Amino acid sequence: MTMINAYVPGTGTGDAAEDALIERRRRLLGPAYRLFYAHPLHVVRGQGVWLYDQAGKAYLDVYNNVASVGHCHPVVVEALSRQAAILNTHTRYVHEGILDYAEKLLAEGPPELGHLMMTCTGSEANDLALRIARKHTGGTGIIVTELAYHGVTGVLAELSPSLGPAVARGPHVRLVPAPDGYRGEGDVGARFLAGVEAALADFADKGIRPAALLVDTIFSSDGVFADPPGFLASAVAAVRAAGGLFIADEVQPGFGRLGTGMWGFARHGLVPDMATVGKPMGNGHPVAGVMTRPEVVAEFGRDIRYFNTFGGNPVSCAVAGAVLSVIKAEGLVENARATGAHLMAGLRRLGRKHDLIGDLRGSGLFIGAELVTDRARKTPASAETARLVNDLRERGVLISATGPFANILKIRPPLVFRPEHADIFLGHLDEALAAI
Description:
One of its GO terms (molecular function) is transaminase activity. It holds the Pfam family Aminotran_3. Keywords: Aminotransferase, Pyridoxal phosphate, Transferase. By secondary structure, the protein is of the alpha/beta class. Helices cover 38% and strands 17% of the residues. A hairpin with a 5-residue loop joins strand 15 (400-402) and strand 16 (408-411). The longest helix has 22 residues, at 332-353.
C-alpha cells in the first residue's frame, strides 16, 4: 500500500529546483519515506478544501481526511494559539481542559463507552487498545482484515498487512478476507463471519486465546466497504462468544465522515468494547485516544500504571474541542450526508458514461470508486488508475488509490467539502476518464 501512487526516486520532475529539494529530503530524512504522485507536490499553504503549491496554484483536496474541518480552520487555529500562549504541559498535573474535552467527546458516543484515555497518535491509541484487550481477556490472538492498516508501532505493523510483505505478520495475528460486496458472492455478513470463525478455529487448534477483532469500520485500506449496514454484527458476536473483544478503529470513518452519525460502528448497530480515534480528531494536530467500556479497562487500570506525557495536553485538548465544536456548529455530519449523496449521484452519472468505472460504494464523504478494464470480468484497472490519479494531480485535484490491486479511487475530502466542490471534482474526473 505504501507504494501505491508513489514517486520513484531518481526519476526527476523536470524542475531543477524541485529535484534538488527532493534530493535534500532524501539525504536528510533517509530512504524509508515515500512521496505521493509521479510528480511530487510541494505545498506551502492550505485553506478549507484547497492546498496551494509554491507557485500559488490551487489544488482541490479530495483525499485528506486528516484536515477534517478543512485546512487551517480559523476556529481551530485560534483555539490552538490561545491555549499555547497560556499553558502547555504534560498530563501529570490536574487540568480542566482534558476533563472538558472528555465530557464532550464521550457524550457523542454510546453511554457504555464511559472512559477516554488520550494519546498523541492513532498508532498509540490502537497499541493501547491492544494492551487493554490482552489484559482483560488473557488472550493474545488478534483478527484483522487482509489489507488492514492500524498503525506503525512494532506491534501494529505486524497486524497491518497494507504495509507490504516485507513487514512480517505477528504469530498471533490472523487475517480474514475483507467484506467485499463487489467481487465476493453471497451475503456479505455471512462471508465475513465465515472468515472470522475460521480464524477463531485456527486459534483454538493452536492453543491461542483470542483477544480482539480489530477493524476499521469502513475498511478503507481494503477497498472501502460500507454496506449493507449491520453486516459486522454476527462476526462481532462470534468473537465475543469466544472470549475476545471488538475494537472499532474509527480513525478514518469517525467524526461524522460517513454522514449517518458520528461513528462508523453505529451503522452496524454495534457498541464496541473500545473505539480508537486520531488524525481527524485534531484536524492534523497530533491528538488521539481510546474510548472504552469501564469494565474492560478496570483490571488494566488496577494493575498497570498508564501515562502518556503529552497525550491530552492542554493545547491538544483545546484543538480537539474546537474541532468538535466546528463539526456541531457547521452541521458537518449532515453536510457529509448531503454532499456525499450529491457526489455519489454525480459519480453514478459518470459510471454510465465511462466503462472504466466498475463499482461505486461508500457512505457520506467516504467513497470508493473501483476501476476495471472489463466490467464482466471485473479486471482491475491498476495501470489506468495510477495514470488517472497523476492526471488529476496535474489538473489540480488531489486523490489517491487503495485496495489489493491499487485500482480503487479513495475519495474522502475534508468535511467542509460542498456540492460546488464536488462538481469541480466531477468535471475534472470526467475529462481525465475521457483522456484515458
